[in-house]
Amino acid sequence: MDLHQKEIQGFFSFPVDNLRASPFLIQYIQEEIPDYRNAIIVAKSPSAAKRAQSYAERLRLGLAVMHGEAHQLESNMADGWHSPPASRTTTGHTGLELPLMMAKEKPPITVVGDVGGRIAIIVDDIIDDVEDFVATAEILKERGAYKIYVMATHGLLSADAPRQIEESAIDEVVVTNTVPHELQKLQCPKIKTVDVSMILAEAIRRIHNGESMAYLFRNIAVDD
């Protein structure tokens, strides 16, 4: 369900169907968020914009995109995020002179889109380390969003994620039950669950009976 990259399907030696949780999360927005018509869908990075746009189009809402970075992690320095380094000596083939390149730098986080006086709904496929979500929520609050929701398919919520959410500007985190998170819910009342067992059970039933899976994708566009 909601593979991080749909190309992952090509690495299996048997047929794979990528089920979607978006219909269930969209239904939650429509039924459980008062005045959701005054909401705006938020992508916390440009790479998440396509998913956010899909939600925005189905709900007929506006779209905002976060751009930049709140902070630089030491791990990024080690894994090449800032490569190539600011200075280096060229070794190898004689006579090969490569120009020196500046290290990559990300601008501070900015918001592309007007969130002032709106309900901000951040959508993503997974929420585990919540630091980025918390930082995004703080900036949205500074820009005038009066309520902030996070919608994600897979709620790993590891380490001290429940405490960080509880102390943050996030009003509610909504995840499906693809991953057990009952302990996290006890630690943080802001975490809510959407049940997707029905679509998983129906997929199993159809596969077992040799029936078409097309019905489960009737509301899913080719680009989703």
What does this structure look like?
The chain has 224 residues and is α/β, with parallel strands linked by helices. It has a domain of 156 residues: Rossmann fold (3-Layer(aba) Sandwich), CATH 3.40.50.2020. 29% of the residues lie in helices and 18% in strands. Strands 3-2-1-4-5-6-7 form a seven-stranded mixed beta sheet. The radius of gyration is 21 Å and the shape is globular. The chain starts with 21 loop residues before the first helix and ends in a 15-residue tail after the last helix. 25% of the residues are buried. This is Phosphoribosyl pyrophosphate synthase-associated protein 1.
Keywords:
224 residues, Rossmann fold, alpha/beta
Report the average pLDDT across residues: 87
Total E-strand runs: 7
Level-2 CATH architecture of the domain at 22-69 and 110-217: 3-Layer(aba) Sandwich
Distance between the termini: 13 Å
Fraction of residues in β-strands: 15-25%
Looking at the structure, the CATH topology of the domain at 22-69 and 110-217 is Rossmann fold
Number of helices: 7
Low-confidence stretches: 71-79
The neighbouring-strand order within the major sheet is 3-2-1-4-5-6-7
Fraction of residues in H or I helices: 25-40%
Judged by helices, strands and strand pairing, the structural class is alpha/beta
What is the N-to-C order of secondary-structure elements (H for helix, E for strand)?
HEHEHEEHEHEHEH
CATH class descriptor of the domain at 22-69 and 110-217: Alpha Beta
Q: Which overall shape is indicated by the principal axes computed on the Cα atoms?
A: globular
Biggest sheet details: 7 strands, mixed
Radius of gyration: 21 Å
